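A favour, since you know our structure tokens better than I do. Go ahead and set the record down below.
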Amino acid sequence: MMRLAAAALVASLTAVAHTPAARDTHVVLDAVVVGDSGRTMRGLHAGDFDVKEDGEAVALTRVTEMSSLGLAGETVHRSVVLLLDDTLRPMATPIVQAIARGLLSQARPGDAVAAVRLTQRDPAVGPLEAAVETVDDYHAGRLPFFGIQSIEDLLDTVARISRDVAVTPPRRTNVVCVGGRALCDPYFENPEYSLARNQWRHAIVAAAQAQVAVYLVDPAGLSGRGFDLGNGLVEQTGGVAFVESNSFDRAVEAIWDEASHYYLLEYDSTSRPRELHTIRVKMRPRGLHAHARTVRGD
């Protein structure tokens, strides 16, 4: 009995010794807050946010209201990157171009705007004129949709864009994927067992580090098909999916509104090191909703 007890004690101490110790990590989390009308909300403070990481409440050390209108906090230039799905059928070309041109038409001097085709390696930064040229050169049907391979390409492109647009101090970048839901908003029930595991993790981590949120505008509109399984790439990065609607103008307006006004939430994380951390942001005032990422990496 003494030997068994001693062995159990050694095993217990060994397990404790190999458990990663918690460490302080400063986290900057971008969040858009909208009201029931869908419009962004201004004038919020730390007490309006309820943030949890890995299920534990965190204390916000700073909340900065970012507005391109100069109404509160620091005045910032907006950052939007169009990610154009060219694996769609050729007949989608004029619709995708019309949506992209609508988005580009709302850009103002000083905004960071780019257009990237999925199967090309277009730069994610550059002058507005280059983005317009990329949209003009866009053609759907360059390659067919290859299932998991195309999804891996999408995730790799999101990671590349995130690295390219990362700046200091941080600012939110809306990456707008104009394409099919299956491609632009991939969902994995168990990402760690997926064939795209590495690409998924790299995209999630890079997006979190660069404050990138992925948005989806499905050019199929009302004729679009697909199931919203929840917690896909769009939700995980704090974006919004505009699907099964022909109101593309409304999507354009909302995307630029959310690029124009958001909050940077800062806190010191004491979670134990792990590959990915889960984040939950809820609003305390009734009628307010936060668009914020749900995952970040160490």
Q: What stands out?
A: The helical segments are 2-17, 93-104, 128-137, 148-165, 181-184, 197-210, 233-237, 248-260. Residues 1-17 have pLDDT under 50 and may be disordered. The two ends are 43 Å apart (CA to CA).
